[in-house]
Amino acid sequence: MKVMKFGGTSLSDADGIQRVAQIIMEEKGDVIICSAFSGITNDLINSGERAANGDQSYKKLYNNIVQRHQRTIERLSLDHDYELIIQIDEIHKELEKMLEGVFLIREFSRRTRDLVMSFGEKVSSRLLTSYLKANHKQAEFCDSYHLIYTDGVFGNARINPERSSKKIMEVLTSEDKSVKIVPGFTGRTENGVITTLGRGGSDLTATFIGSVLRAEEVQIWTDVYGFMSADPNKVKDAFSLDVLSYDEALELSYFGAKVLLPHSIRPAKEKGVPIVIKNTFDQTFKGTRVSKATVPLKDFAKGITSIDSVSLINIKGTGMIGVRGISARIFRTLAENDINAILISQASSEQSVCVAVQPDVTLTACNSLRKEFQLEMMTKRIDEIEVDTNLSIVAVVGDKMRNTPGVAGRIFNAFGEKGVNVVAIAQGASELNISIVISNEDEERALNSLHNAFFTKRRVLNLIVAGKGLIGTELIKQLKKTKKTFLEEKGVELRVISILDSKKMLVDPQGISLNDWKEQLIHSDLTSDTRKLLSMLNESNIINTVFIDCTASEKIADSYISLMQNRISLVAANKIANTKPMSMYEELKKTANQYKVHFLYETNAGAGLPIIDTIRNLKDTGDKIQKFEAILSGTISYLFNQLTESGKFSDIVKKARDLGYTEPDPRVDLSGIDFARKILLLVREFGIDMEFEDIRIEPLLSPYTSEDVSLQEFYQRLVGEDERYSQLVQKAKEKGCVIRWIGKYENGRASIKLEWVSNEHPFFTLNGTDNIIAIYTNRYTNPLVIKGAGAGAEVTAGGVMSDVFRIANAMNKRWDY
User: Which of 324, 391, 396, 636 has the fewest CB atoms within 10 Å around its CB?
Assistant: First the structure.
């Protein structure tokens, strides 16, 4: 025995009936439950309400309903079925009389409303029966009026199981091979008055009949892909679930999953009849099977759902501690006012209880509770009853959450990363569900962060690259080359979702092709704007994001705080932010810590050399700095490595420029400002307060040469420096030394100045653009020396990549938690 139910979207028109009939024949269905055509029930309700209001336009709605049915008959070529034509005509006439009566007496009672609503299923089920017969399939219309007996609660009637089961067995278990077509949603009282079963009534009809008949399964055919891991309208990565237990389905349904309502699941659960949710419009979809057994996903949670509008009533007071019966009085008061408590949470101290209710009953609930606890409030044993509005409930559901440690930790970790504040939390003794109350505005962010924490099949680190210069271009080149290997080895996809320069930006949450990104950027219509970028990312609920600054832009540096406040980690090759006033440096650190994001900038000093990381390790393990000496400019290192008795200082500067080792204007490098910023940063990394103005820079150029003149004039004046440097080199050589421009910190002072160093000094032998630092600490009385290439786009981009990989690895550990 197979019971099948088809919803209104499946039976929306002639095409729908043809499609449904084909499915019935292919699936070999035995009992078919029909909903009304999509939209018909609402039209019936609206026509009745208009009639009750004396609005003649109810007739237009009625005529639209009749015409829709008639068009379906014509398109299905059923106009030769005279018995059907007579039946449908009688139904329409009866409906017309009902609406005329409502119009005359100006009353649309709940009893009358149920009768009017029942006409939709009466027609759709008869049309399907006739069409099956016309296509040589034995079919029999079985009116639910003779099958489903209910109480007299109109609009939400409850089935009388004993009476209904007896009738179902009598009518639907005949030995003939005809398919039984049953209208869903409707029933009758013992006195023969028509009732409806409320929301999801046709699903309930199907599962109840299936449970009575002990069906092989009940198939619910609809327009969605079964139960999903989350609402696909809110979580773009949501996926269909193959298997759920009854309890998992009940929890997901209760907390907002609209595939099946809880009362529709219970009859099947009681008799152990499986329910399969299938898609009428995609028969290749195998469906979600709801049964006793569940198959766990890789993780222990099964689904995430939400109720997007609740109010939270908080009853608190020291007079509640240890007092028996408080909770019972709360529940009784709500029950007496027909108010459903969606969620209940009580503090372990017993001095507060919070109850979540629907917004439309909040006022009634508060007034009734204030009346119940009037005496306690007068004597100050209970404080004023407070209400929080504009809240949502998100729930994490899964059978395998039972006795599994770390579930709540993962939830709070996910919320912390996205800045979602928890208002209240509740977990039943079954441990099947953890429910969290949050702000409405945080709902989609919370759902996406939880889905990512529990269900993401492919771990994604979203990257934003700012700057398309030498470093930015090389970085994208390295990302393109390494992303496949990183995915295979680490299981993390490095996805570039935005690239921006000073004028334009590209944004694609699904990932930008790195093959033609320059061409895409040229033709982009988006103006470069980090605020607009943040807005777009928030709208797309992008998480696990890293902003990579490969610019020298102060404007970009000024956006760091805002980026971190939006839970975006930062990797900075740009050193401007870290070398602003000390207060800004401290604010950056504080913000990164507060919002639990990474802020890495290894390439701020020494390009790809692990200088900053080493300093942090020394500091974190309790070592104390005594002094350090450093050459942290590839340009300066190259100049003094090339400087010989026969080499001219001006020629070496020009050669360095031609090789790309200097800025287009070499005065930027020769001024020592960039070098000083690196020294400042390292001093700060050791935990020492210092401002840029505290660093004494001995100039490389005479005041005349460094004047603000044209670049051409500068090169002409630079020749005047050759003789001075020739003499310096000669004197140093006579002493067995070389000249170096060295940055130094010692005894609270920092400087950059020319020095002679002997062959015993670590800085005596340097090559090309080597950077070097010698660190003296309490542990390292002989210096800890770090040396290597300190300039060039490839080396710097490699250092940036290292920071990105460090963040990816840290996130990987969190994902595996």
Answer: 324
For residues 811 and 462, what is the distance between their CA atoms, to the nearest angstrom? 12
For residues 612, 616, 619, 623, the Cα torsion angle rounded to the nearest 10 degrees is -70
- pLDDT tens, 625-656? 999 999 999 899 999 999 865 689 999 999 98
pLDDT digits (tens, 9 = 90+) for 36-55: 999 999 999 999 999 999 99
Q: What angle do CA 368, 374, 379 make, to 5 degrees?
A: 155
Residue 31 to residue 647: CA distance in whole angstroms: 98
What is the C-alpha to C-alpha distance for residues 564 and 558, in angstroms, rounded to an integer?
11
Instruction: Report which DSSP code applies to 141.
Output: E
> What is each CA distance from 389 to 334, 341, 342, in whole angstroms?
18, 15, 14
Give pLDDT, residue 296: 58
| Alpha-carbon span 47 to 68, nearest angstrom | 15
Q: What is the mean pLDDT of residues 262-281?
A: 96
Active-site residue set: 678
Closest CA to 25 of 163, 168, 138: 138
Contacts of 29 (CB under 8 A, 6+ apart): 2, 3, 4, 23, 179, 219
- Taking the alpha carbons of 680, 683, 686, 691 in that order, is the dihedral positive or negative? negative
Give the pair of three-digit tokens for residue 759: 């062959």
Q: What is the pLDDT of residue 816?
A: 53
**Token pair for residue 447?**
């759902």
For tokens 């509740």, name the residue: 426
d(CA 29, CA 565): 56
Residue 433 DSSP one-character state: E
Q: DSSP letters of 756-808?
A: EEETTSTTSS--TTEEEEEEEESS-SSPEEEEEE--SHHHHHHHHHHHHHHHH
CA distance 427 to 415: 17
List the helix and strand counts (H, then E) for the chain.
29, 28
Structure tokens belonging to residue 569: 């980690």
* 119-134 vs 110-117: helix crossing angle, rounded to 10: 10
Spatial contact of 176 and 169, defined as CB atoms under 8 Å apart: no
The partner residues of 218 in beta bridges, in order of sequence, read 3, 275
Task: Give me Rg for the CA atoms of the chain.
Answer: 37
For all residues of the chain together, what is the average pLDDT? 92
413 Cβ contact partners less than 8 Å away, ≥ 6 residues apart: 453, 814, 817
Give the number of residues written for the chain: 817
- Torsion sign, CA atoms 372, 377, 383, 385: positive
pLDDT value for 430:
60
Name the 3-class secondary structure at 45: helix
* Tally of CA atoms within 13 A in the half-sphere of 808 that contains its CB: 21
Give the integer Cα–Cα distance in Å for 388 and 362: 10
Strand 433-439 with 386-397, pairing: antiparallel
